[in-house]
Design a protein that fits this description.
Organism: Cephalopterus ornatus (Amazonian umbrellabird)
Largest sheet: 8 strands, mixed
Helix content: 25-40%
Structural class: alpha/beta
CATH superfamily: Alpha/Beta hydrolase fold, catalytic domain
Subcellular location: Cytoplasm, Cytosol
Keywords: Cytoplasm
Number of helices: 6
CATH topology: Rossmann fold
Family: Belongs to the dienelactone hydrolase family.
Strand order of the largest sheet: 1-2-4-3-5-6-7-8
Number of domains: 1
Pfam families: DLH
CATH architecture: 3-Layer(aba) Sandwich
Distance between the termini: 45 Å
Strand content: 15-25%
Length: about 240
C-alpha cells in the first residue's frame, strides 16, 4: 500500500492514453521500443526512460515525436527486465528499489544499443535524451561515452549525477522552477560547476512555474496554464538535437 504522506517523488502525473507508432524488438539481452521515420536517415536518438520504465506511453510518445522530426528513436529497457516503479508502490521501499537500478551503470546496455543502431539501422550520428532517472543517465553518458554526439537531460535528478562537470559533448539541461525533487540551489550549483569546468557547449534552462515531469508527464489539454512551457521544452529539446546531430 502506498504511503500517501510521502508519495513517490516522481509522481506519475498524466498517463497518456497512447499506443505508439513503433515496434518492440529484442536487442541482444535488452528489449526496446523502436520507431523509424518514413524516409531513411543516419540520425538517431536513444531515449532513456524515467523510473516508470520503457513501456510508459508518455515516453513512447516522445520517441515518436522525435521520429516525426526525422530521427530513428529507440527506448531500451535500461532496467533489463527488472520491474519499473509503480505509483502504488510504498515510498518507504523506494531507496532499496533504486539501489538495483543505478543510472550510472548502463554502459554495457548503451554499447549494445549503439551497435544495433549502427549495424541494423544505419545510424552514424547518435544523441541521447533522458527524463528524471534517465536525465541523470544522460549526464553520466555525456561525461564518458565518446560515441554520442550530444545529450538532453530533462529534469535529471542532480543528486544521482557523478560529481563531475567536464562534459565531452554539448548538453542541454531542462529543469522546472517548482520541481520538488530538484531544488533550485542544486541547479545553481550545477551551473557554477559547468561554468568552471566545461569546455563544450551547454545550456541550463529553468522553465517558470513548472514541476517535475512537465515535458512528458503533463497533458497540455488538461494543464492549459502549463501548455506553453510543455511545448517550449519539447521544441527546445528538438532544436538542440537538430543543432548537434
Amino acid at each position: 500500500m502506498a504511503n500517501e504522506s510521502r508519495p513517490c517523488p516522481c509522481d506519475i502525473g498524466d498517463r497518456f492514453d497512447y499506443g505508439g507508432r513503433g515496434q518492440e524488438v529484442q536487442v541482444e539481452h535488452i528489449k526496446a521500443y523502436v520507431c523509424k521515420p518514413s524516409s531513411s536517415t543516419d540520425k538517431a536518438v536513444i531515449v532513456i526512460h524515467d523510473i516508470f520504465g520503457w513501456q510508459l506511453p508518455n515516453t513512447r510518445y516522445i520517441a515518436d515525436m522525435l521520429t516525426t522530426n526525422g530521427y530513428i528513436a529507440i527506448c531500451p529497457d535500461f532496467f533489463v527486465g527488472q520491474e519499473a516503479w509503480k505509483p502504488s508502490n510504498d515510498w518507504g521501499t523506494f531507496n532499496e528499489w533504486l539501489k538495483t537500478r543505478n543510472a550510472s551503470k548502463i554502459d554495457k546496455e548503451v554499447d549494445v544499443v549503439l551497435k544495433y543502431l549502427r549495424d541494423q539501422c544505419g545510424a552514424k550520428k547518435i544523441g541521447v535524451i533522458g527524463f528524471c532517472w534517465g536525465g541523470a543517465a544522460v549526464q553520466h553518458l555525456m561525461l564518458k561515452n565518446p560515441h554520442l554526439k550530444t545529450g538532453v537531460s530533462v529534469y535529471g535528478v542532480i543528486r544521482h549525477f557523478d560529481d563531475k562537470s567536464n562534459l565531452l559533448h554539448p548538453t542541454f539541461f531542462i529543469f522546472g522552477e517548482k520541481d520538488d525533487v530538484i531544488p533550485l540551489e542544486q541547479v545553481t550549483s550545477l551551473e557554477q560547476k559547468l561554468k568552471q569546468n566545461c569546455k563544450v557547449d551547454y545550456e541550463v534552462k529553468i522553465y517558470p512555474g513548472q514541476t517535475h515531469g512537465f515535458v512528458h508527464r503533463k497533458r497540455e489539454d488538461i494543464n492549459p496554464q502549463d501548455k506553453p512551457y510543455i511545448e517550449e521544452g519539447r521544441k527546445d529539446m528538438i532544436n538542440w538535437l537538430n543543432k548537434y546531430i
